[in-house]
Specification:
about 30% strand, Elongation Factor Tu (Ef-tu), domain 3, globular, 19 helices, Rossmann fold, about 625 residues
Length: about 625
Amino acid sequence: MDHFEQIRADGIEAYLDEHQNKELLRFITCGSVDDGKSTLIGRLLYDAKLIYEDQLEALEADSARVGTQGDKLDLALLVDGLAAEREQGITIDVAYRYFSTKARKFIVADTPGHEQYTRNMVTGASTAEAAIILLDARKGILTQTRRHTYICTLLGIRHLVLAVNKMDLVDYAEDVFLETEAAYKELAESLGASGVTCIPVSALDGENVTTQSAKMPWYKGKTLMRELETIPVDDLDPHKPFRMPVQWVNRPNSDFRGFSGFIAGGQVTVGDEITVAPAGTRSTVKSVFGAEGEVQSARAGQSVTVCLNDEIDASRGDILSNSVDPPKTADQFRTTIVWMHEDPMLPGRSYLMKIGTKTLSISVAEPKHKVNVNTFEELPAPTLELNDIGVCNVNLDQPIAFDPYVDNRQTGGFVIIDRVTNDTVGAGMLDFALWRSDNVKWQDLDVDKNARAAAKHQKPCVVWFTGLSGSGKSTIANVLETKLHAVGKHTYLLDGDNVRHGLNRDLGFTDADRVENIRRIAEVSKLMTDAGLIVMVSFISPFRSERRMAKEAMGEGEFIEVFVDTPLEVTESRDVKGLYAKARAGEIKNFTGIDSPYEAPVKPDVHVETVKCSIEDAADQIMAELRSRGRLE
């Protein structure tokens, strides 16, 4: 019975009520190029009578215009929506389709087969509970099959269905299928996957897709559609620990205060004892409100508002959990990261991390190794490039409540965002907390920053000079320190060249080394302001992201960015050290302004144009800024 027959038989209200309460399965299709992923999804929709008349008319027109099946419908065109895909005959983006049967609802993501689109596959797989991995019966297991199986298991997909497609091209031979099935199950078991189901199909002709194939009487298992209808949805298991990241503190009036969010695991019932993580405060559930009003309980997959019996503190990003099995708390982790941007990951750079409903700062250490997703070999890597998968330690700027990704994908998975462009540059999985998260604590001291600054009769700050090599940063900083010293202020000047003789002598001039160079100096500057000093920092510091990181490490009003703006042709004409000449001759690589970029400040606190003023005037300009901020009092 199709949807329209069911509506005619039961009525629209009964149909909608049944449809609303159906279980939802998210799954992906993946495999090598031209294995028939799009055709298979099209066949599922077509045979299940889930294509509307206007879609069918468009499909008929498209099949006649750009189809590859002669006079037949080209079912792949139902999914291959991008013009570039239709022209090339491949899928390059993740195409999502929604459909339903009498048993359940589905969202399917048709993911790319090419290796260069690994990030697209990761996107589609990140929310899937099951995966259909296709392969051509004539070709058997290919490199792409291994790669996609690895990524599926890495991303926590527990239900793998191998669809051995194009059985019509091997005369529906049982021995071909059995040989492929045995080889694939061996591969899956080596990656820790169990319960793999293998189904012989012909997507083009519809054999074993929605109905049992008469051409393969030796196969006694389920059809592909029946397998999809009966796969358990693990994420909806009510017996898992309760987890609900708080999205919003719901307070429409003084008489109502609730915590709204999407339940990421388990279930919650009125009367349950609840822990708010990471704070650890406890209360009991007073009431639960769902889409239709007040309910007695709710489970994973539902968006609800939970009201507690006590006025405890919780905000966006915190996690409500059951008190018996609360999430762990840490700020340093071993992770697995998939890099998804053309610009490489720079170890030590401060990025943003979004996990659940919480956004915070993250820095990624140099990878322990990256994984060759074709051979599963672990390779050394100083950084991660586009589509690389690597194991890295990460540091957060505050503790978070979490579960390992293998236990809960919602509270253990995260994305990495560039602080300047807001691009999503990576996706990661929390493997486990590092031991130092629990064993290294901040030591409280009796004499603090305020006491040290008061003894010096000043307010500490960092004056951060940035500009091209030869712009005059160090000269201006030196004159400024002389002026401050003359009025009795306690100072220190951190100069880029001087620091590379000691603290940073191990660093080169690659982008990654430059990031680490500034990270270390920002930490030293923070310690010096804690000592009550006025610190001058004279570094090229070419990247906005690192300058922003340094600013955010300081207290309110303690960071003064000075842009020493000198045109490249002027700095190059000075060339006191002969560096520009060497860079032009190719003797120095990664030289800022020549073959390495400089990102000028957008809104510096002090803009010094050296072609328009003297060194003394520039120093006086900065002194005026310090006075206006009350830093010299």
